[in-house]
Here is the input.
Amino acid sequence: MMDDAAAVEKMTADAKLKTSVFKCPNCGGEAEFDAKTQKLHCLYCGGYYEIQNNEKVTENELSELLDKATVWNEAEVYECKSCGAKEILDKQEVATVCPFCGTNNVVRTEDLPGIKPQGVVTFKIEKSNASDIAKAWAKKDWFAPNDFKRSATTENIHGVYNPVFTFDAETKSDYDGRLGKYYTVRRGKHTYTEVRYFHISGKDYPLNFDDFIVQASTSVPQKHISKISPFPTNGAPVFKSEYLRGFSANAYNKDGKVCWDECKELMRIEIEKRILSKYNYDVKSYVNISTKFNHPLYKYILVPLYIGNYRYKEKIFNFFINGSNGKISGSRPKSFWKILFATILGLIVAGLIIYLMFLGDFVD
Ligand SMILES: [Zn+2]
Ligand SMILES: [Zn+2]
Here is the structure.
């Protein structure tokens, strides 16, 4: 058992890693956002305080993105000199440990924090839970080395708000293309596979997108955000700095315009997938699609992530956990021997299939 003085000392040490400070109205101690109760929780007297906020975030016209968005004045940008990650903190705060690489080589910069978030998806998963999720995930990878699976240690787990733009759009697409279907012909003793091509086309193919998420910071790759989605961005509360207490926010380095261009590309991929799913085909020769994006709307919103890493044989492997639903993505060490074994096994199976196909031909 820790005595009280030791407990307070430990709490102070923990609090030093924290970012935004909110003073408890009861005792003046530091309070932070509590995922379990969705309230502010004082680290010293244990009191809970409701965050006064009944408003839900709403969409904005995309045309207003550049000129009318509010600038985030009450915040400052810090940069990690070790890994280059940028964090946004409240003005009264000081530098902290970098959530991406764990070093405290973090300095304040003159960079502007950009536009103010309009909404925030709050943390629902507690930090202690995040570590359990990461340990369980380490065990699930068949290719991971056995000693890693047995005793994976998780380090530097930080709750970080990650910036995303969400977009809505009503799309209409005209398309034309050529697809092919396999068929077999018999000539003499042998059967051959050939392709029969056909033409496809359509006008005003409709597809509506709602809250399509585009990652606005390159510190966390889009593929991880897509894997751990969804985030409940629809109906999320409007931004209040109280939600950041005890967490930090990653700065965006892709602005709304860059994200919208990226979004259109991602939406085009989805539109092509939907169009092609209407047809029965084996090969795609080409498809041309021209899309109109009508009534585009956007939200700039923070979504909750736990970022941490595994350390294995002096190497660092990052993982990212959705702070709202607990889904995880990232990298894990791979065992060279297991990969070699699987490759050899794959080759044997492929060889066997080819052998059996030829055998079938001869019997026939
Ligand atoms: Zn208190
Ligand atoms: Zn760093």
